[in-house]
Amino acid sequence: MPELASFVAERGLVDHHCHGVLLRDADEATLEASLTEGGPFDGGSPFDSAIGFAFRRLCPPVLGLDADASLSSYVRHRAGLGVSEVNRRFLRAAGLAAMCVDTGYRPEPITSPAELGELADAGAFEIVRLEVVAEQVGAGGTDAAGFADAVRAELSRRAAGAVGFKSIAAYRVGLDLRPERPTAAEVAVAAGRYLRAPERLADETLQRFLIWCANDLGLPVQFHVGYGDRDVDLHRCNPLLLTPLIRSLRGPVMLLHNYPYHREAGYLAQVFPHVYVDAGLATHNLGFRASTLLAEALELTPYGKFLYSSDAFGLPELYYLGAALFRRALSEYLRDVPEAERIAELMCGGNARRVYRLS
Q: What is the percent of the chain with per-residue pLDDT over 90, rounded to a whole number?
C-alpha cells in the first residue's frame, strides 16, 4: 500500500474539466461562498461539512501552517501571502500534468487557460461551452434564417484552438433530449423564438442542434450530469435520460460529475464504447468519503473509460483538494487490483490524453 500510494502521488494528473481561479484575494466570506455549491446559510458555516473538514485538515500545510490551524488564522496568513503566491502553491501542489479548461463560466475575472497553466506548470487546453457561443452569435445581430450557419461557423472557428466542447443542457432544459438531429426548419423556428429575447438559451431544439454541431466537428463533447448548484433540477440530470441521444451520437461523450448518478454513468460507460465518465466536483465535496464514491463509480465503469477531473472554480484550494482526495481514493481502491500501476496511469492521465488527443 505505501508503495502504491507513492506511485499514485507521483503521477501527473490530467484534469479534464476545470475552470480558472480568482485574480483577487479571498476573504473568509469568499471562501465560504465558494467552498460548496450552496454557500453560506443562516446559523452555520459550509466549513462544518465533509469538504470543510477536509479543507481545514489538508490545505493549511500547503501554506506553511499546522494542519489544525484555525480558519481565522488561515485567512490572515493566506492574505499575507497574496493571491498570486496562494494560487501558485496550491496549483503546483496538485501535481497536474495538463488541464482542460472550460472558459464559458466567468461571473467575475478569473485566469485564462494560459495563465492557469503557468501557475500550475502544466499544459492548458480549452473546452468551449456551446451555449455561450450560441448566445454570442445571437447577440451579434444575426436573424433566425442565418442563425444556424453563423453558429456552425463560429463553432468551427473555436474548435481549431480547443480540445473539446461542453453542453450545459442539464441546467437549461434537462437531459431528456430527443435523439434525432433537428431539421433546418426546426432550428430556424427555434432560433426565431430565442432571438426575440436573446439572453439565456434554454430551448430543447437548439440544445440538440448545438450538440449535433459539436459531434460533427469530431471533438469530445462534455455533458454536465447530476450534482450542481441550485439552478439545476437534479431529477432531470440523470445520465440515463441521455440514452437515446447517446445511441445516435458517434463522437466521444464525456459525462461529468455524475453524483448521485455515478453508478448509472458507469453503466453507460460499460455498454457504450464512446461514453466516458468522471466523479469530479463530488470527489472533494464528499471529503474523506471520496474513497466510497470512487469505488461505487468504478463498479461497472471499465478502467479505460474513467478520467480525473476536479471541476475546480475560483479557489485554488479546490484544485488541490480534488487531486489529494482522488489520489487517496485511487490508492485505496487499487490496493487489491492486479496491474495496479498500469491502471493508475490510465485513470490519472492516460485515458484523458487518448480521448482528447493531448500532446
A: 96
User: Of the candidates 293, 264, 300, which has an alpha carbon nearest to the alpha carbon of residue 279?
Assistant: 293
Q: How far, in Å, CA of 125 to CA of 221, rounded?
A: 14
- What SS3 class is residue 229? coil
Cα distances (Å, whole numbers) of residue 334 to 188, 304, 328: 51, 14, 10
Contacts 24+ apart (CB under 8 A), 180-185: 180/208, 180/248, 181/208, 181/209, 181/212, 181/248, 182/208, 182/209, 182/212, 184/148
Tens of pLDDT, residue by residue over 276-304, are 999 999 999 999 999 999 999 999 999 99
Could you give the 3-state DSSP secondary structure of residue 212?
helix
Residues 6+ apart with CB under 8 A from 336: none
What does the pLDDT read at residue 140? 92
Give which of 128, 191, 187 is closest to 157, Cα–Cα. Answer: 128
Ramachandran angles phi, psi of 153, nearest 5°: -65, -40
The residues with which 162 forms a beta bridge, in sequence order, are 126
Q: Nine-digit cell at 104?
A: 464559458
Instruction: Look up residue 357 and give its DSSP letter.
Output: T
Helices (H) and strands (E) in the chain, counts: 18, 7
Mean predicted lDDT score pLDDT of the chain: 96
Q: How do beta strands 96-102 and 123-129 pair?
A: parallel
Cβ atoms < 10 Å from Cβ of 161: 10
Instruction: Say how far apart CA 246 and CA 177 lie, in whole Å.
Output: 10
Per DSSP, the three-state class of 143 is coil
- Average pLDDT in the 40-50 region? 89
Query: In this structure, are residues 204 and 173 in contact, taking their beta carbons and an 8 Å threshold?
Result: yes
Non-local (6+) Cβ contacts of 273 within 8 A are: none
DSSP string, 261-321: SHHHHHHHHHH-TTEEE--TTHHHHTGGGHHHHHHHHTTTS-GGGB-------B-HHHHHH
